[in-house]
Structure formats: structure tokens, C-alpha cells
Amino acid sequence: MKRNVLLLPLLIFLLIAAALLWQLARNAEGDDPTNLESALTGKPVPAFRLESLETPGQYYEAEVLTQGNRCCLTSGPPGARPAAPSIST
């Protein structure tokens, strides 16, 4: 019984080492763990109309996203009170 308890840390180490080596082998084969596939890639942007937070009276629509320029749709930091999303280019 005591011998089994002494082998437990070694067994845990070997399991962790095997998992890390398995992931390294996957990375060597071309698997990129930072590549996140999006379910929305290739789908049309829904119609929307948002007022700019920086210049009131200026509105953005879905066509802004189809002009070929990169932009980021944000709705504020987590935990903030809900507000209309803004567009920053």
C-alpha cells in the first residue's frame, strides 16, 4: 500500500508529460491551438444602424463592414451597463 502511494506523484507527472508531448506533436504537424474558427465566417452581416459615440448624429450601417476596411464592433467592457454597440475603425 505504501509503495503505491509513493508511485502516485510519478504517475501524475508521467500523465502530464504525456499530455504535453501529445500537444507538442500536434503543433509540429501543423495544428495551431490559437486558431479559432468562427461560426460566422462567410455569413452576411445582419442589418443594423448605430449612432456614433464620438460624433452624435453620425450613423453607421452594415455597409461599413463590407467596404474592405478592418473595423471592430464593440459593446463595451464586461460588466458594464448595456449600451448601443460602437464601431471603431
Automatic annotation (TrEMBL):
It comes from the Bacteria. This is Thiol:disulfide interchange protein.
